[in-house]
Write a structure and sequence with these properties.
The chain is mainly α. It has helices at residues 15-31, 50-67, 84-93, 98-102, 105-111, 120-134, 148-165, 210-218, 235-248, 252-258, 264-290, 293-322, and strands at residues 2-7, 33-38, 74-78, 140-142, 173-175. It has 2 domains: 2-180 and 292-322, HUPs (Rossmann fold, 3-Layer(aba) Sandwich), CATH 3.40.50; 210-288, Tyrosyl-Transfer RNA Synthetase (Orthogonal Bundle), CATH 1.10.240.10. 53% of the residues lie in helices and 7% in strands. The structure holds tryptophanyl-5'AMP.
Length: 331
């Protein structure tokens, strides 16, 4: 079983990333051959500062290592170091429908009213994401719920490629957790938690100090009722139940039973305590790791070498199947 996932470089990873994706990356190391990359090329599609991008890659690398990625047990690298991703992206464009890209929710959200002005890289973003996964012939893609459509598209692209050029690519499947696939903003629980579209007070960062985490949960929006139970009319309370269940590795039903009759104050306090207990060791390890950029560079460079060894094999076969370059000599 080969597992692949990617994550954007930013120093502001939040609880949604942690619960929806990062904990799954860590578990993936026990399930199979796990490959994870920090997608610096994806981050160039929106306005950014070049020096800031490098820093953000280190921040993200240190966060993921602090959360439990182990370079001895997974391949961990920076996307831009493995040129096969960009080459495969271009080759896969030939089996990607323009109309499909135009229907991507994330493109529509990010482009907003500026549809004509946004960069072409934002439009092609899902093809690069498909290339990330397909280059490794990965079977399993751990992601949060917001990546569902992107994984659907990469499946379509792989199927179309295989139908047109021969069965070379693996059609991957998403692995979306049952609990915590869509953590919502604590202030606006109808919106997903996000550092780009969310509220400051409603977004718990992996690196937040305990006092900040407590404050954010204390001021979390609930409703005028008192019952601790999930329901579409109670998005704030449902979100808190889901967060507590995910962090404790319990079911939402267990949380509902435990807090039956206790009220929202007790629930908020318990969530804050559980999240702090989970994130404190991560923040402490982060502080040790982040100071050593040479070490982070070495880990990413070693990972890139291993990643390249796999991706180069796929690329050679894809190029040959597509008639690009000379006929390959074997043996
Ligand atoms: P990114 O960096 O935005 O998010 C990283 C992971 O966090 C998940 N996530 C959430 N999960 C639960 N609740 C939330 N509120 C929440 N917000 C984010 C995301 O679903 C994601 O799994 N396009 C991808 C990066 C990418 C990628 C790939 C992923 C590039 N290439 C190949 C998988 C495979 C992204 O922007 O993730």
């Amino acid at each position: 079983m080969r597992i692949f996932s990617g994550i954007q470089p930013t120093g502001r990873k939040h609880l949604g990333n942690y619960i929806g994706a990062i904990t799954q990356y860590v578990d993936g190391q026990d399930r199979g051959e796990a490959i994870y990359c920090i997608v610096d090329l994806h981050a160039t599609g929106v306005p950014y500062q070049p020096a800031g991008l490098r820093e953000a890659v280190y921040d993200t690398a240190a966060t993921l290592l602090a959360a439990g990625l182990d370079p001895e047990r997974c391949i961990f690298f920076r996307q831009g170091d493995v040129h096969e991703h960009t080459e495969l992206c271009w080759l896969l464009c030939s089996v990607t429908a323009w109309g499909d890209l135009n229907r991507m929710h994330q493109f529509k959200e990010k482009a907003g009213a500026e549809r004509e002005l946004v960069s072409a890289s934002l439009f092609f973003y899902p093809v690069l994401q498909a290339a990330d996964v397909l280059a490794y012939r990965a079977h399993d893609v751990p992601v949060g719920d917001d990546q569902r459509q992107h994984v659907e598209l990469m499946r379509d692209i792989a199927q179309r490629f295989n139908a047109r050029f021969g069965e070379l690519l693996v059609v991957p499947e998403h692995r979306i957790p049952e609990v915590g696939a869509r953590i919502m903003d604590l202030q606006f629980p109808e919106r997903k938690m996000s550092t780009t579209g969310g509220s400051e007070q409603g977004t718990v960062l992996v690196l937040d100090e305990p006092a900040a985490v407590s404050r954010k949960f204390r001021s979390a929006v609930t409703d005028s009722g008192t019952e601790v139970r999930r329901s579409p009319e109670k998005p704030g309370v449902s979100n808190l139940i889901e967060i507590l269940a995910a962090v404790r590795e319990a079911t939402p039903e267990q949380v509902e039973r435990e807090f039956d009759g206790s009220g929202y104050g007790a629930l908020k306090q318990a969530v804050a305590e559980a999240v702090i207990a989970r994130l404190t060791p991560v923040r402490e390890r982060y502080q040790q790791l982040r100071g050593d950029e040479a070490l982070l560079e070495r880990i990413l460079a070693d990972g890139a070498e291993k990643a390249r060894a796999i991706a180069a094999g796929t690329l050679a076969e894809v190029r040959e199947a597509m008639g690009v370059g000379p006929v390959r000599r074997r043996g």
